[in-house]
Amino acid sequence: MCMCTTLLLFALLAAASGAVRYYVPALSLLAEAFGTIVLVRWGCQKSAAFIRRRLIGRILDSAGKAVLITGCDTGFGNLLTRKLATKGYHVYAGCLFSNGGGAQELASISNVTVLQLNVTKQDEIDAAYEAIKRSLGHNVLWAVVSNAGTLNVGFIEWQSTKTIRTDFEVSVLGAVNVSKKFMPLLKKSRGRLLFVSSIAAHFTGPGSVVYSMCKHAISSLAEGLRRECQRYGVQVCSIEPAGYRTALNDPSVLLERMTADLKNVPQEALSSFSAHDYSVFMVSLDWALNMTLSEKIDHVINTMALSIEESHPRAVYSVGSVKDQIVVKIMQTLPTEWLDAMFALQWKLIELRMSIYK
User: Fold this and answer.
1) Which pTM value belongs to this model?
2) Helix ranges, 205-293 (H)
3) N or C: which end of the chain has fewer CB atoms below 10 A?
4) What's the mean pLDDT when you consider all of the chain?
């Protein structure tokens, strides 16, 4: 969804009413007001960031500090492990496959300890806790990064209950159980807990309902835990990246999983969908992933590292381009009915494009 779609919707509504000459000035005033609000909010955020980082903030020493990161096989977790290791932290890298290629590469780094950690299995969480507690020595567990997550796409009716349950068990319950288990060590070190959420926590588009539900739950978990733990000196943060290209959102893998999962859905549930519906969805997914995902994943990794090492971390770190931030603000500001119309219009535009270029 983009600003062009929003403006096109306004134009269509104005033309339909036959009152373009009245709506254009109104749209101009609305744009000026919205732009002013965005600029004021942006200025306040930048001023607060400057005060926090330049005047009262500082980068903490990594000596004697250990960090646990979940979901380190690939993506954010793998790259953050490497980043923190170069900064002198001892990193416990929790991997779904501790004998896999990504895990073995991390194991070759001197101050990285790879742990077998499937966050949906309490016995593996318990084993990781005992292993870390035994090996800390004079170090303290300074931070836990709850990064493990999943992504499956497709309309709700296209996804099996098993797939939806797995998404919640990994992304939400896994984060809850890891946080609960390691909280005593974080209270002892007065450290911090970092959750990886997403801008998708703030709005839900067709085809990514379960993902948005999980990320909204993670953001709520971070917000609530921050208020519960502040009296104990534990700081809780969340990272909300925009779209960045990782192994998690590889288009071919997502489509392969969606197609395979369709076989587990009752045919009665799928009978109302046509082959055309699947084609339009796949085109929209391909456009969303290939046209909007950023390759600059280092922006996310640097922000995650900053949240661990700065003395006064933010409650929420939003990571994305200026365009991404503006789109999110628009999505949060517009009436729900307008957003519904925009998503419906987007579907129609994709159908129109397919009919032209078929």
Assistant:
1) 0.83
2) 209-229, 251-262, 267-270, 275-292
3) C
4) 87
